[in-house]
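U., I forgot to send this yesterday:
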Amino acid sequence: VQLVESGGGSVRAGGSLRLSCAASGNLARGNCMGWFRQAPGKEREAVALINTGTGATYYADSVKGRFTISQDNAKNSAYLQMNSLKSEDTAVYYCAADRVPCDLQSSWYNYWGQGTQVTVS
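Result:
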């Protein structure tokens, strides 16, 4: 299974970015996909996750109301729309995928994207 991310970049506070994650390979239908992020000197944390079978979602408290995760099962892809970005959202964002149930611990996930930098100034 390979996860390919796109969509990071630099934006001013209050701006928006959209991350995409496309999965290829033998990823089971009805899995968990989502994003973690890691800022310098901090642990990797779950940002938003989606159960692609049920559509159930999880959001970290810090991004609720600003970020939206969605999926396109036909394309084996997930998306993260990030609005009202803040400087504290600056981090490397990693797409992750594995079997359900969705877990908040990064150690649950065997499949990772390469990471994409999001910088908010």
